[in-house]
Amino acid sequence: MPATELTDCGPHGNPGSKERGQVHLLTRIMPRKARVALGGMVFHVLNRGIGRRQLFETQADYDAFERIITETLNKCPMRICGYCLMPNHWHFVMWPEGDEDLGLFMQRLSVTHVKRWQKHRNVVGQRHLYQARFKSFPIGRLNGPVTFLFLR
Questions:
Q1: Cβ 54 vs Cβ 131: under 8 Å
Q2: Which residues, in sequence order, are CB contacts of 121 under 8 Å at separation 6+?
Q3: pTM for the full predicted model
Q4: Which of 2, 25, 55, 106 is 20 to 30 A off residue 77, Cα-Cα?
């Protein structure tokens, strides 16, 4: 929630004016809290379409997203232990090596997906595709082989 304060404004709505006028509500935008995604940790990562919008309607949509994953891996290496794509959301289990790797990978993946999804549907610049930034939850550290099972 952004911080707010009340200020007295002059007759022309200028904060700090010596003449008293209307009271305006000023909002100071606070920067969002930086994510902590330590390299070496394993994370459950997910995101969903805004308003439960379908991200994948056809097999071609799933195939296109998997191509974006491959392209993103070529630019931003990431250990992906597994993933599951569903019509309106997706899940990944990721194991970044460096502290900033998860955020960089997810930013490139998400931005590329949104741009191509909108272009394919001729809705460029219209609203959001995802409901928010991706969510990530630390699972722990891996010290040996692990099996992940995703059920639909």
A1: no
A2: none
A3: 0.70
A4: 55
